[in-house]
Amino acid sequence: MNLIPVSDAADLRISAFRDVKERDLTGRQGLFVAEGEVVLRVLASGASRCSPAAVLIAEKRLEALRDMLERLPEDVPVHTAPQDVLDGIAGFHLHRGILALGRKPEPLGLAAFLDGLPERAVVVGACGIGNHDNMGGLFRNAAAFGAAGLLLDATCCDPFYRKAIRVSVGAALRTPFVEGVTADVMVEALEARGFQVLALTPSAVETLSELNPAPRTAILLGSEGPGLSAEVIARCRPLAIRMSGGFDSLNVATTSAVALHHLTTRAL
Fold first, then answer.
1. Which of 5, 53, 133, 209 yields a CA-CA distance of 20 to 30 A from 217?
2. β-pairing, 196-200 with 149-152?
């Protein structure tokens, strides 16, 4: 283990970790910040599409994490610091006591991703998802229900934002996704490869519960409020999840869980 004790929050060796909240949205030159033990273990695992670049932990957490930290590549520095120094570096009280820097994977191309999928696959398409909690929830649900990956349009927020990663419990680090794809391109590319493309919308006549999923199925989800555009819905098979109590829709992350459960269990 490449162990490096840190006693000063101004130590230049940990400058990339400094002021986590203020710098998350501006990016870190191809790096991202991961927080917490569960996420760090995903980052350090063979399932991760990303690679660890550095670790910063509270001294009190070292022994509990030693088994995992000793398996990191020798060139990954493991910085340890007293809790008060760690808080000074992060800019807030870091009660989990664990931060890591990870390297983003090479971006996936749409055609290459879709062409590599098996004959039975479920894909999630996301349009206009700007809330990081929802983005993390989408990735967690996609991983939990065995979706092959996600397609994100250019208006979606960054799945490598610290909060999105944390909410996804690390699923954002291991689940394949393609960024910057318009909804029209998503639909065209999916249909060309034999996918049945579904649009989740409260206005649909047909309900999700009535659907017998095709072997290859994609679900498109829009932002809460505006949802998917009428033009996109018209190109897909619209489906609704019926509500009661005066509600017309669910949180988008919850919607994805309900839809993915139906698609993956009915397809078995």
1. 133
2. unpaired
Q: Which of 93, 94, 99, 104 is nearest to 79 (CA)?
A: 99
List Cβ<8 Å contacts ≥24 apart for 44-49: 44/68, 44/69, 44/71, 44/72, 45/174, 47/174, 48/102, 48/170, 48/173, 48/174, 49/105, 49/173, 49/174, 49/175, 49/176
Q: Are 78 and 17 in contact, with CB atoms under 8 Å apart?
A: no
Predicted confidence (pLDDT) per residue in 25-72, tens digit = 445 677 899 999 999 999 999 999 999 999 999 999 999 999 999 999
Q: Which residue has the tokens 């340890």?
A: 80
Query: Would you list the DSSP string of 148-177?
Result: -EEEE-TTSPPTTSHHHHHHTTTHHHHS-E
